[in-house]
Amino acid sequence: MTDEKVEIREKSESFDIAWVHEELAQVQIRVLSGHKAGVNICTFFNNDNSVLTASDDHSVVIWDLNRGSVSSQLKVHQDIVSGATVSGDNARILSCGWDKKVIHSDVETGSVLCNFDATHIVTCCSFSSDGKLALAATDYDNNVHIYDLTSGTEIHVLKAIHEKTITSCRFTSNGERIMTTSMDWKAKMYDLKSEKATITLKEYHTNVISDCCFTEEERRLATSSWDRTIKIWDVSTGAFRTGGPVTLAKAHQGSVSSCAISADGQHLVSGGYDCAVVVWDVENAIQRLLLRGHTDWVEDVAISTNKRWIASASKDGTVRLWDISQIDKIPFVQEKQEEAGLKVANCTRCGKPFSKATMEDRDESLCVFCRLEQEPVDPSAFLDEVSDVDEDEGLEEDTDEQLQ
Question: Euclidean distance between the first and final Cα of the chain, in Å?
Answer without folding.
Answer: 44
